[in-house]
Amino acid sequence: MVEFAPLPAALADAVAAARSRFGAHVADVRYAPSLPSTMDAAAALADAGGTHGLVVVAGHQTAGRGRRGHTWSSPPGAGLYVSTVVRPPVAPHVEGAPSLMGLLTLAAGLAVAEGVGHATGLEASLKWPNDLFYGYKLAGVLAEGHRIGTAEQHVVVGVGINVLDVPYVSARERATSIERELGRVPDAGAVLAEVLAAWAGRYQDLLDGRYARVVDRWRIRATGLAGRPVTWVDARGEHEGTTTGVDATGALLVDTGVEVVRITSGAVQWQ
Question: What is the pLDDT of residue 77?
């Protein structure tokens, strides 16, 4: 069982000062000095009845993870490791139409980039579907759905942000940090508060059906998205093509030379 503690003062003060901007989407913020994974802790709390807007923050993760089970390097005290529980309304799926669930990961990535920018002045770029870069990898986002399609459906949205300039030894791609890019130690409390506030705003955009706003703002930050060679594997085998952008649903568009393919999930290797 995870033992929670009071949020460290530097984080607590910043979160309290920003509380009026959170609305219902950031509610019960819980902190653990160390735990295996904020994703797992938040999921367990949600399964036990944790409400929409419950947030788990950790000072250290011993088993942090990214997409497709990859390890997310989480050195003690070096980053912000945060997972939030959202309980989206159940809605029918319309193939090819934008939706809250389909755009959740893009909205979260956009919010992290906006929050980091507001807190530090660093304008990070976005890489489909869930990574932030400032030259090198700065942060990542992971969304995992639970009981989808039922009245109890919920999604845990996890964020890992490299704050201090330490070796991120398990990063699959070369990593950077806010401290390295700023040339000074950042205010981690301000980063956390601004990211949570930006997330609350972008989630409200999705609830209100402002899908185009989210996608358009995401595209602005997705520098270098089009014209990139990629490979991917699906049920039909391995494929390659050149990216042309993302569509209104958040799907990655890839021109194979024969057709333009929509990729909505799975591992894409960028060349």
Answer: 86
